[in-house]
Amino acid sequence: MTLNFRFAVVSDLHVALPHTIWDHPSRFHLVEVSISAFKSVLEHLTQLDLDFLLLPGDLTQHGEPENHAWLQQFLAQLPFPVYVVPGNHDVPVLLADQQSIAFADFPYYYTKFGYEDPRQIYYIRQLLPGVKLIGLNSNSFNEHGEQVGCLDAKQLQWLEEMLAASGDELILVMVHHNVVEHLPNQSNHPLANRYMLANSQELLQLLRRYGVKLVFTGHLHVQDIAYSQGVYDITTGSLVSYPHPYRVLEFHRDNQGKEWLEILSHRVESVPEFPDLQQSSRQWMGDRSFPFLIKLLTHSPLNLPLSQAKKLAPSLRDFWATIADGDAVLDYPHFPLEVRRYIETYSASQPNPGMTITGNLTMIDNNTTLLLNKS
């Protein structure tokens, strides 16, 4: 049976009403543009005859009740269904404090956007005939009350039951934390592992067992498509962080059963506060990159002396912006060989068979067509 539908993904909105904005000299993202950028995106998306919109977490700056309230009221005005999941910024505390809502409060704000039963912070919804969405919660709290990215055992059991009962329907999964590594050794890297789902391998085993091929994530603030043994993790950069991207996707299945996903990425080029948003935002990120770069260079696996890191860091001011852009090409020929080789591992041109129809190296993080089967 043929199947065709169009949808969009906008991630890590970090919505912040003006009076709630807090500042930090090293923050990479421009929450100042959160509302104007989202409105700009919606002006485009409402012209496209979308079937639905996915928002994979970090909807708000830091879980403020007024920001959640504003967003759910805004989403209710849109002409297509919207589905959300919580990010770490949406539910930063288990119990409500002066700044943020309680973890258990999140679904009650979004009963029209996936959470028909707000007593449960994950869900399954019928999007179209033969197509379902599973929205997962990847935010847990350990015995010390600290937030960790993990799917609890009860949720995993529920997920297996839902997948087993879904038969041959197409299942899309949305979760905030990354499921497949998007950066070199991401699961074990001291700076990057917090963006990974701690029990991602357990989730991947379940997805493979039931033939789920498409997972949509956020959190990392980069444009990247990663692949692992049949599962594509499509992560979308943050709307408030360079390059302020969003994606429009079209799924197709022909009458021979061949399935493919066309992906086009767009960017917010301008908002009233920043008429030249792309240039201003890249500059903003570079200006605030030094503390991050020092950590990158002095931590494992490079473990450079601080004095050497300080000499190399200025040349890397656009390192993270280039990665966030997607399809990164990184080469620093004047660097020491060990450092140069390590930095190059962040390039998008690393061999990754299965990512493209031909298996050849190509730029796939922003605009591509993924062949999902060969039937």
UniProtKB/TrEMBL annotation:
One Pfam family linked to the record: Metallophos
Keywords: Hydrolase, Iron, Metal-binding
Organism: Nostoc cf. commune SO-36
InterPro entries: Calcineurin-like_PHP (IPR004843), CNP_phosphodiesterase-III (IPR050884), Metallo-depent_PP-like (IPR029052), Pesterase_cyn (IPR011239)
PANTHER family the record matches: CYCLIC NUCLEOTIDE PHOSPHODIESTERASE CBUA0032-RELATED, PHOSPHOHYDROLASE
Protein family (similarity comment): Belongs to the cyclic nucleotide phosphodiesterase class-III family.
Stated name of the protein: Calcineurin-like phosphoesterase domain-containing protein
Cross-referenced SUPFAM superfamilies: Metallo-dependent phosphatases
Origin superkingdom: Bacteria
Residue ranges of every copy of the Calcineurin-like phosphoesterase domain listed in the record: 5-222
Lineage: Bacteria, Bacillati, Cyanobacteriota, Cyanophyceae, Nostocales
